[in-house]
């Protein structure tokens, strides 16, 4: 596609995305991009409603750990296509927090493109099969270092605190840990006086507890609630419609949800893709509740969801590329504010309903592991990056749960309870909190499923939900 974008297309995609920025912004980042904020249940760019028009950017595929925004050359090559498609957002699943991202982030900003970033890596993530020991200070140091680095870019739109950690009923016992991590990330930004980049969770396409997880992440005290919620959705398979796909029911079920909601992956590929869902997603049938979404995915990999093939430095568009471009070109955002909910706010916590939702919402969250408290005060320092040893069986886990009284200090551990150290070889079993958990996957997936949440979810994320 190199050189294929017409100046008209550039002008169109840039025209909608650039606004005049305050001189201080320009001086600070050299980009002039306006940071995205949350109001009610919507995102805003200044005074204008912001809808995510994005793709998931994972060249090399979900099974290969790569940081696509550490490589300025391939990043700039692909930005031309993002612009040609009329996109304003990309999602990246893992970054090496020891690498420099200035050049790619600046090029994205210059193109009016924002980043939604997963803070985890396969080695630094919660372990859904045994979450308690994996919620430790070594893990938090890694993700704090990541948000420290990326919150300084004005075009970082949002952080995912977790991706598909919960993928069935039994794994919902990990939800308090996901919520604790979300709380800690938000606290880190606040305590370190960094920009309050919105933090939220990206849920798997699981019907049985999607709504409960969404409610759980938006209930309780302000410091424990998320800034937004996202989920993956492959239920619209062309040819389809708003009602045939069941999207009308999902709008209904999420009406009144008080924080922004968007699709972190979409684009069923069962039949020939026409991306008919684009017209629905950016229409007022949905925009009162949803704020757009991210198409899975930019590059063609084994799972066949790609818009382009990448061979060496050559990028070739596939039929899906043209189909998506045509759907997006035909679909403007609604006029005005798209009927968003200006009030927004918390909802009641969902009731425990095992086996689908095995969480006692009246219970308190795990407190931040004691040795990680210093990072909130003094900063996380440098990240160890992809070559780090990993965190799942390292460091010191949380020693207690907060009182849940609603004080703003619910994240910090109180008293002098002794911390339990769970260092050991990977694969070692532990009798910690989640010992009752049943195997989250079918037998064929079991070998990889046990320990690496991120690998598992990115490997199978798009496919297992279609089974
Ligand atoms: C909507 O909510 C109802 C009632 O909780 C539930 O039975 C149904 O599965 C939900 N529909 C979708 C599409 O999530
Ligand atoms: C707006 O959000 C609040 C908080 O969740 C909710 O109580 C209210 O019903 C919502 N309003 C509409 C019109 O959906
Ligand atoms: C904290 O809560 C979790 C889940 O709610 C529970 O499994 C764990 O045992 C509790 N930990 C402590 C130290 O009370
Ligand atoms: C938490 O709430 C209980 C009951 O409302 C109260 O007795 C207790 O003192 C509170 N604890 C803190 C730390 O505020």
Bound molecules: 2-acetamido-2-deoxy-beta-D-glucopyranose
Rg from Cα: 21 Å
Tell me the name of the CATH class.
Alpha Beta
Q: According to CATH, what is the topology?
A: TIM Barrel
Overall geometry: globular
What does the average pLDDT come to?
83
* Count of the separate structural domains: 1
The share of residues in helices is: 25-40%
Q: Count the strands?
A: 13
Structural class: alpha/beta
Largest sheet report = 8 strands, parallel, barrel
Concise structural overview:
One of its GO terms (biological process) is fungal-type cell wall organization. The protein contains 14 helices and 13 strands. It is an alpha/beta fold.
Key phrases:
467 residues, alpha/beta, TIM Barrel, 8-stranded parallel β-barrel, 3-stranded antiparallel beta sheet, 28% helix, globular, disordered N terminus, binds 2-acetamido-2-deoxy-beta-D-glucopyranose, glycoprotein, transmembrane helix
Task: Give an overview of the whole structure.
Residues 330-374, 387-427 are annotated as: Disordered. This protein is α/β, with parallel strands linked by helices. The chain has helices at 7-17, 23-29, 72-85, 102-110, 131-134, 137-150, 175-191, 210-217, 247-254, 277-281, 319-330, 373-378, 446-449, 453-464; strands at residues 36-39, 42-45, 48-50, 52-56, 89-92, 114-118, 156-163, 199-203, 228-233, 261-266, 292-295, 308-311, 314-317. Strand 2 (42-45) and strand 3 (48-50) form a beta hairpin. The longest helix has 17 residues, at 175-191. The structure holds 2-acetamido-2-deoxy-beta-D-glucopyranose (4 copies). Residues 255-256, 258, 341, 343-345, 347 line the site of one 2-acetamido-2-deoxy-beta-D-glucopyranose.
């Amino acid at each position: 596609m190199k050189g294929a974008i017409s100046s008209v297309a550039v002008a169109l995609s840039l025209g909608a995305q650039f606004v005049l920025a305050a001189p201080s912004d320009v001086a600070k980042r050299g980009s002039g991009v306006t940071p995205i904020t949350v109001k009610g249940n919507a995102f805003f760019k200044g005074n204008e409603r912001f809808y995510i028009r994005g793709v998931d950017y994972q060249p090399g595929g979900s099974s290969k750990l790569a940081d696509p925004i550490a490589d300025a050359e391939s990043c700039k090559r692909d930005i031309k296509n993002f612009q040609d498609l009329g996109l304003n957002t990309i999602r990246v699943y893992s970054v090496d927090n020891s690498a420099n991202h200035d050049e790619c982030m600046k090029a994205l900003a210059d193109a009016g493109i924002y980043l939604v970033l997963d803070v985890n890596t396969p080695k630094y993530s919660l372990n859904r099969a045994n979450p308690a020991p994996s919620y430790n200070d070594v893990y938090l140091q890694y993700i704090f270092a990541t948000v420290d680095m990326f919150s300084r870019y004005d075009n970082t739109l949002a952080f995912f605190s977790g991706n598909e950690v919960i993928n069935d009923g039994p794994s919902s016992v990990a939800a308090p840990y996901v919520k604790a991590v979300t709380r800690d990330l938000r606290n880190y930004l606040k305590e370190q006086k960094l920009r309050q980049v919105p933090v939220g969770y990206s849920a798997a396409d699981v019907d049985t507890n999607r709504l409960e997880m969404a409610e759980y992440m938006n209930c309780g005290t302000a410091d424990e609630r998320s800034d937004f919620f996202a989920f993956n959705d492959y239920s619209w398979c062309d040819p389809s419609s708003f009602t045939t796909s069941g999207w009308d029911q999902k709008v209904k079920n999420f009406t009144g949800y008080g924080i922004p909601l968007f699709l972190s992956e979409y684009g069923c590929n069962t039949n020939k893709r026409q991306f008919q869902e684009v017209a629905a997603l950016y229409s007022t049938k949905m925009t009162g509740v949803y704020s757009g979404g991210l198409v899975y995915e930019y590059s063609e990999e084994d799972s066949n969801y790609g818009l382009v093939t990448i061979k060496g430095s050559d990028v070739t568009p596939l039929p899906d590329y043209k189909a998506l471009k045509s759907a997006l070109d035909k679909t403007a955002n609604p006029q005005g504010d798209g009927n968003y909910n200006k009030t927004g706010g918390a909802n009641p916590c969902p009731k425990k309903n095992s086996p689908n939702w095995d969480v006692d919402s009246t219970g308190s969250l795990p407190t931040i592991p004691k040795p990680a408290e210093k990072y909130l005060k003094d900063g996380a320092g440098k990240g160890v990056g992809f070559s780090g040893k990993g965190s799942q069986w390292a460091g010191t886990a949380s020693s207690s749960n907060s009182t849940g009284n609603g004080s703003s200090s619910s994240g910090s551990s109180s008293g002098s309870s002794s911390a339990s150290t769970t260092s050991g070889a990977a694969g070692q079993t532990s009798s910690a909190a989640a010992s009752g958990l049943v195997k989250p996957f079918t037998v064929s997936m079991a070998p990889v499923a046990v320990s690496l949440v991120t690998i598992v979810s990115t490997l199978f994320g798009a496919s297992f939900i279609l089974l």
